[in-house]
Design a protein that fits this description.
Helix content: 10-25%
CATH class of the largest domain: Alpha Beta
CATH architecture of the largest domain: 2-Layer Sandwich
Distance between the termini: 50 Å
Strand content: 25-35%
Shape: elongated
Number of strands: 16
């Protein structure tokens, strides 16, 4: 397989030699005098055991007052304790000058608005044209040594906000926020029909369909799965609706499966939706052109500054056109 180093179609940008990311430091307090360095880093910075093991293998991974240290070393009050991570690059991802909408970026993380029809990360059959290809090119143009580390993903045909960490520590911190629900993701969807109860919580376990492993179903033996929904608008006397959704869990295809299970399949969903069979559905399907699902909002705590951050992405043109059609305008 060609790489960004060997494929003649792509040229590496000018990037500096690999070094270390900016140190992350904490000063030991009086009550922490005598603690092991590993305990201090775990309690004060939330450094995981996995990351700590990785830092121990590098010459400058762990430092006390500018001198190399080891995880079992004791710290004294006033000691400046640092972690230093080696820089990386995604040399296995081809850098492509693709359209890229960056909602927010600093030296720690990047938030992008992914269009529908784009895969987040290269996979079999999607070696190029992904969000990763575009972001790696962006970083090369910026002269940054950064490995592509998505905190979460979206389906190919789902548009919206995707959060990417720019070093292992930030990725660890954001992944923990994601797993325990502190990253709050809000979605907009356009669906057939309307929920009998305008707002509520779908609590229904999800697992693979044993007869079609790529397909997910609600099953009593599945993994716990919960989706909060609220009806934002109803169109055509109940023929379709707009929903605001929030995930309590993050199962594959969760929103699509849960909405279909309550009788509100997403418009344009070729995998879980009903076949278009009149009553205006053909026009709706054509207008959507894909599953009518958009990751509209994302909120999280910045792992370095502690700031509560909240972002939104407007409806893309295809779903805005669908909404206009559903309104009968």
């Amino acid at each position: 397989m060609a790489t960004a180093k060997t494929d003649p179609r792509y040229v590496q940008g000018t990037v500096p030699p690999l070094g270390y990311y900016e140190p992350i430091a904490v000063t030991a307090g009086e009550l922490e005098h005598g603690w092991r360095l590993s305990k201090l880093l775990e309690r004060r910075l939330g450094v995981s055991r996995k990351l700590l093991s990785r830092l121990k293998l590098t010459d400058k991974g762990l430092m006390i007052n500018g001198v190399r240290a080891y995880s079992g070393d004791p710290v004294s009050a006033g000691d400046i304790c640092e972690i230093r991570m080696e820089q990386e690059r995604s040399d296995d991802i081809l850098a492509q000058p693709l359209p890229l909408e960056i909602v927010f970026e600093d030296k720690w993380l990047l938030l992008a608005h992914k269009p529908s029809g784009m895969v987040v990360h290269p996979t079999h059959g999607h070696y190029t044209g992904t969000l990763a290809n575009a972001i790696v090119h962006h970083w090369q143009q910026q002269g940054e040594n950064v490995r592509f580390r998505p905190v979460h993903r979206l389906d190919e045909d789902t548009s919206g906000l995707v959060l990417i960490a720019k070093n292992p520590y930030v990725h660890q911190q954001l992944s923990e926020q994601h797993s325990d629900g502190r990253i709050r993701k809000g979605y907009l969807a356009f669906a057939y029909g309307a929920p009998v109860i305008p707002s509520g919580r779908v609590d229904a376990p999800i697992d693979r369909d044993p007869d079609a492993p790529h397909y997910r179903i609600v099953t009593p033996v599945g993994y716990p799965s919960a989706t909060l929904y609220e009806t934002a608008d109803v169109y055509g006397g109940g023929g379709a609706c707009k929903l605001r959704l929030r995930l309590e869990t993050g199962r594959t295809h969760q929103i699509r499966v849960h909405m279909g299970w309550i009788g509100c399949s997403l418009i344009g969903d070729r995998m879980y939706g009903p076949a278009a069979n009149g009553s205006g559905r053909e026009d709706w399907e054509r207008a959507a052109g894909r599953q009518a699902l958009h990751a509209e909002r994302l909120s999280f705590q910045h792992p370095m500054t502690g700031e509560e951050m909240s972002f939104s992405a407007p409806l893309p043109p295809d779903l805005a056109a669908l909404e206009t059609l559903l309104r009968g305008e």
